[in-house]
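In this supplementary section we document a worked example of the pipeline. Step one takes a protein sequence of length 101 as its only input; no multiple sequence alignment statistics are reported here. Step two produces a three-dimensional model, which step three serialises into structure tokens for compact storage. The input and output of this example are shown verbatim.
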Amino acid sequence: MGKDYGKKECREFKIKNFPDNIRELLCMLAKDDNNRVTIILDTCEDCILEDVCLVAVIGDLAVFRYHDKFKFVDVHCICTVIVDCETILDEVLESSNRCKC
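The serialised model returned by step three reads:
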């Protein structure tokens, strides 16, 4: 008989130096120039997929370079951030090696 996965509780755990929300993730990625990300924006009508270059995070405002313009997005409007595996691993490993003196 198969295992009953529906009755098990989901265990939440924290990975050291890994962001646990979209804003923290964007802040971590913004530390390096030209970090390309794909974001999915939750708009009134539909979700929009955009391939952009992250420039900065200022408060709850994410700044992206989009073609030859800047795009300013409320962090709360971003429902998904897609990042290259190497980029996220480099950022997590780099942040874990920073001196906390």
